[in-house]
Design goal:
There is one protein chain. The protein has 475 residues and is α/β, with parallel strands linked by helices. 49% of the residues lie in helices and 15% in strands. The protein has 18 helices and 15 strands. The protein has a 6-stranded parallel beta sheet with strand order 3-2-1-12-13-7, with helices on both faces. It binds one RNA strand of 76 nucleotides through helix 7, strand 8, helix 8, helix 11 and helix 14.
RNA sequence: CGCGGGAUAGAGCAGUUGGCAGCUCGCCAGGCCCAUAACCUGGAGGUCGUUGGUUCGAAUCCAACUCCCGCAACCA
């Protein structure tokens, strides 16, 4: 039995779940389910990233205590499990005591490797924005949003991580393992970036300015910067450092992340692991973004799509289907409600749903015997392999091409015109084929696949219920 | 010469090693009537962003160019 550890990134809880995170966790879920079905032992981790100034301020603006705010948001993210039918085994919060202790131990290990040092750090601060500004954010050395105000210079002492030390080791890692980051152009991207030279980065803030963070061991005046804190979750979730056995059983694992997370995951985190003397991740898959009508989703454009609203309207499997079948596996994908509806109507209502009704009705009318779970070895092997290579679009295409063939065969063979015995003889192979194809569908649309398999594996006591109502009946 | 992605039928996209341009939706015409007014068959519709090169042959390889979109370090 093979062991398989898979984790999403931890979404930052400054806002409600985003459709982009739904994409990430649904893909992870398909991979986890697929591994379980092939008999692997799976540990699937997700959770929430809860520290940092933005969270602190957000809670303040809502008049909540920061802990209360975090608790509410963590609940909101946990709701995705039921809504999207997710099968994660662990939900970690970076405010968990166990995680905080692990991060502090991780910090000590990096200190022991000589990779953490203190230095003065001067930063430009815009009073108008109440934000630190980097040079790249400035125009003519002024904040573009508040050009009338002079920037303040703040001189602060922070801890830095010696990222520059790991340039060669990271480059070696990338060349030794060509599938370390997928898709390969993302590996190329991070490789180029590392080759262009790395600078050390600040990993702490003054506690007086940032009260919501994990204390730096041995320095009460400083708290850790959120990235350093959050990345460690991938191993603290496994019980590191106390549960040594469990940790080495699962780590290294596979990570999935959005393309904005390429550097933190494939670069910073890997350098941190090297510093702490731990093995690098096994593989990192980078998702593209979902645009809304071709535009980047952002709060200022108020075009952010909520996965929860979509699920409430169309159902969890419908949302899973759209994300898995219509969003490109390797590049950005686009969402519009029209696109969603078109796909839903064609593939789920008129496609799979209607085919199920056709076959289900005929099975009931002709009083067929229950069908044992059929097997299409060729199809399931192919689909399994496609999933492991993160080709979700193509995997679903393979299954749907069987469904289309079955629709055509039914129309061609017209069992409803035959004598009962002949009709049965005609239907049985078709239903077997349908059940076998649907068996391969289980990791993608677990609820729907289960309904179909259950229907055909029992005595037929009536007409089947529609799986996906037509859109005109939803609104 | 900052990094990377994209440009293929009205729309959305596939095209793995170069070998007669495909899929889904939409549209038109037939068929079927088991089924969620669903399903099936056929058809119309493309100088594969531009220009040049390699080749018997290029959407595919090479070069230059045009347009669009992300990112450009402490930003989930």
């Amino acid at each position: 039995m093979t062991k398989f550890y898979l984790t999403t990134t931890l979404p930052y809880i400054n806002s409600e779940p985003h459709i982009g995170f739904a994409l990430e966790i649904v893909r992870a879920d398909v991979l986890a389910r697929s591994h379980r079905l092939s008999g692997d032992e799976v540990f699937f981790n997700t959770g929430t990233d809860e520290h940092g100034l933005k969270i602190w301020r957000k809670a303040e603006s809502l008049g909540l205590s920061v802990q209360e705010y975090c608790d509410r948001m963590a609940e909101s993210f946990k709701e995705l499990k039921g809504l999207l039918d997710l099968s994660f085994d662990n939900f970690i919060r970076t405010t968990d005591a166990k995680h905080q202790a692990a991060v502090q131990e991780f910090w000590r290990r990096c200190v022991a490797s000589g990779d953490i040092y203190k230095k003065h750090y001067s930063v430009k601060y815009c009073v108008g924005c109440e934000m630190e500004k980097t040079d790249s954010e400035l125009e003519n050395d002024r904040c573009p949003l508040h050009p009338g105000q002079d920037l303040e210079l703040i001189d602060e002492e922070n801890y830095f991580f010696r990222l520059s030390k790991y340039q060669d080791k990271l480059l070696a890692l990338y060349s030794e393992r060509p599938d370390f980051v997928l898709p390969e152009n993302r590996l190329k991207e991070v490789k180029n970036f590392v080759a262009s030279g790395l600078h050390d980065f600040s990993i702490s803030r003054l506690a007086s300015k940032l009260p919501w963070g994990i204390p730096v061991p041995g320095d009460e005046e400083q708290v850790m910067y959120v990235w350093f804190d959050a990345l460690v979750n991938y191993i603290s979730a496994l019980g590191w450092p106390e549960q040594e056995v469990n940790f080495s059983k699962w780590w290294p694992g596979v990570q999935i992340a959005g393309k904005d997370n390429l550097r933190p995951q494939a670069l910073m985190w890997q350098a941190m692991l090297l510093s702490a003397g731990l093995p690098n991740s096994q593989q990192i898959f980078i998702n593209g973004f979902i645009t809304a009508g071709g535009q980047k989703m952002s709060k200022s454009l108020s075009n952010v799509v909520s996965p929860k609203e979509l699920v409430e309207k169309y159902g969890g499997d419908a949302v899973r289907y759209f994300l898995l079948a219509e969003i490109n596996d390797r590049e950005d994908g686009d969402y519009t409600e029209d696109r969603f509806i078109d796909s839903y109507q064609a593939n789920l209502a008129n496609g799979l749903g209607n085919l199920f009704s056709r076959l289900g009705n005929l099975a009931w009318k002709y009083g067929l015997e229950p069908v044992n779970k059929g097997d299409n070895g060729e199809l399931s092997t192919k689909v399994e392999q496609l999933v492991k290579d993160w080709h979700f679009n193509q995997a679903l295409n393979e299954i749907w091409s069987i469904y289309r063939q079955l629709d055509a065969k039914l129309t061609e063979q017209q069992p409803w015109k035959l004598e009962p015995d002949q009709a049965k003889a005609c239907l049985i192979p078709l239903i077997n084929e349908f059940v076998a194809a649907t068996s391969a569908l289980r990791p993608f649309l677990p609820t729907t696949a289960e309904k179909i398999l259950n229907f055909f594996s029992q005595n037929f006591v009536g007409k089947p219920e529609p799986l996906f109502p037509r859109v005109d009946n939803i609104n």
